[in-house]
Every structure is written in C-alpha cells, then in structure tokens.
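Thread title: Can someone regenerate the structure for this chain?

I was given the following input by a collaborator and told the matching structure tokens would be attached. They weren't. Posting the sequence so someone can regenerate them.
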Amino acid sequence: MTEFDFCAIAHIQNDYKEKFGIPRQSGLVNEVTSRIVFTETYRNSDAVRGLSEFSHLWLVWVFSEGFASREADETTPTAGKRQWSPTVRPPRLGGNERLGVWATRSPNRPNPIGLSCVELVSVEPDTPEGPVITIRGADLLNGTPILDIKPYIAYADARPDADCSYASSAPDAERLTVAGAEHLPSDIDKEAVIAVLAGDPRPSYQDDPKRTYGIHFGSYDIRFRIADGVATILEVR
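Best answer:
Regenerated them for you:
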C-alpha cells in the first residue's frame, strides 16, 4: 500500500476548545474568528504574498483529535491503526439512516483529512509569530494542524447547479432562538457564542429538553438546555 508523509504547515487558534459545539460545516458560524499561525519552518512572509487579494480560502487539515466512531465494531476495516466504517449516519438525516462514508463528510474516514472553505479577514505578513492569517467561519478545533492553504476560485470551485442530495439546502431554517445571554461574561465574544448555540450543537440523536449540555468556548464552560426551539443559557463557569 502506498503511503505518504505530510507535515503541518500551520495550526489554527480559536475558541473551539472541544469537538462538541464546533459547527458541522465551515461557513455556518461566521461570527467566530480564527488565526492561522505557521510552524517555524514555514514562517516566510513571501509565501503569503498576494493572498490578501482573495476573499475566501480552502484549508486542507487533519482531524488530529481522536474521533471515536459510533459506527465502528468488530467488523470495521482498518487503515493502519485507524478504525473507520464503510457506512455512517449523517446528522442531516436525523442520525438514523446509514449512507456510504464517501457520500458524507463524516470525520470517521480511512484518512482523517478535512477540507474547509473559510472567509479571509486579513493577512499580516510580519508579526512576532511570523505571517498570521485571520479567517471567519472555520469548523476546526483549536490547535488543528493545517496541511495546505489554497485560494478559493469562484469560476472553478462554485457549482450552483450541483445536485447535493440530502444536503441540498443550508440548515439556516433550523436555527434556534437563544435566551439567557445575560449570563455571558463581559470578556467573552457574545455574538459568537449565540451563533454557536443557535446552530444547535447537539448530536442529531439527542433531543431531551431536560438534559443540560455544556460547551467549552474560550476559557469558559457554558451550560445550556434546548427545548421548543430555544437554547437557554443556564450558567457560565
């Protein structure tokens, strides 16, 4: 079997401190900004020359944290030491219907590679950390290794007439109302937190109105419940 060696060119920095709460796709929560900080080998300002002239970027990255699969069992194939399943349950289908893994964007894949389209906010070519890129709409965990960065090219990358099967429409209509924002501390990005909760971070198979959930956002643990289309913030620790 052919194998390839890759290295991280950069890591992302943001307030997503755990997998729970991260948007299921890029571009769904543009209120959250992230920084791309290059590793020492790639801290070269020449490499970002001309990048600021684009509005959006493609990020190729690695699911570096262990994504325990609900799909894996004793019949699951292996790729090296990584387990994966040939079928998964897409959240957009309620988490009950199985589809082939290649027909989904599930992280439980033979090669844990992610692809995200993000909005470019700024490029700072010369900082104490080297070149730093600020973006919006990322769906990456803080610290995620980035393998490559490419400019988004509308005429080549956009296909408005594409058939997207079960994901043919954006989930905007499913957004929740958020209550209890007065519990959020003054030093947290309130707009970003509200946007994350409005997107309903719960797994598709959980719908208990009495259950208390928690997301780690920045340095805080935000506790909330969801019932009747409303996400209510209960407390912030």
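Residues 68-75 have pLDDT under 50 and may be disordered.
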